[in-house]
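step=predict obj=Protein C12orf4-like isoform X2 n=300
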Amino acid sequence: MTVVAEFKYKNGAVTASIELPISESISELSHHIIEEENLQPYEEDDLLNALEDFIQFKKENLNDKLSNEALNLTLCINNDEDIIRYWEKQFKEETVSYGDKSGSSDSELFSTAYHKLVHSGIALDTMLQVEQSYAHDVVNMIQQRDDQIEKLTKQQEESLNKKLETHQGSLSSEEINNLDQMYIEQQSFTLVKWISKIDTLKETQRREYRDWVMKLLEEHQRTITLQSSFSPSSPAVIKTFPPITSVLPETDDSRVSSLEESFTIHLGSQMKQIYNIRILSANILDLCSIPYDTRYVLNL
């Protein structure tokens, strides 16, 4: 919307076309008018105040006009359902215009699947075993890296000492510095190579674990669907999830089992409510532990 503003001062008047709503600051607009009309600098403050008052007045009039038009349009619609549909459409369009148009990210999908499986309690032990096995593989690779760097350092020290003994002080400082530089480059190359191998291992584990968790969730949801299709009198379908056998260590069968007893309680008339209860006699911390191989723990 273009409006014409007239600014009067001592020696005359200035007329300017202003586009509302204004896209630039009022101070910049007043500066442009002063340059175009060749006004005196001392008139800038008066022009700025006049422009602020004029634009504020026009903005209020424009807002009142738009509000009246929207109100009249609403009053002309006699059907309440049409009003509801109109504002529902306006709300959706306004929300979508400011919302994130992309779907859920891969990390969000994985976190949701992981959350559901952890709280389901069915595959928690297996998931913890897999995570522990992944951590063990990373620790082993880091230990191999440290051992190789330590071995390389000893070899370099022995090589340097041997050369110093052979030449008996005939090596110049420049030659010694060149040897040190070569040794540093060898260690840097070895370290970068191991960092790359560790990062590759972690990325492989992350991708493999994500795919396994997603498949586990699909199997869990399929099992829930099968259970819901059975009648209450039918036996429940129990599904166990196999672990990733390629990364899990064998468990120690010699581990002492705790004393436990399971029984079923029927409550209510006609046995409408059934509760399966298991009583354990064991150390409370055993409930927080993960079943794993003892030798595997000692390696950590």
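step=describe
The longest helix spans residues 173-229.
step=end
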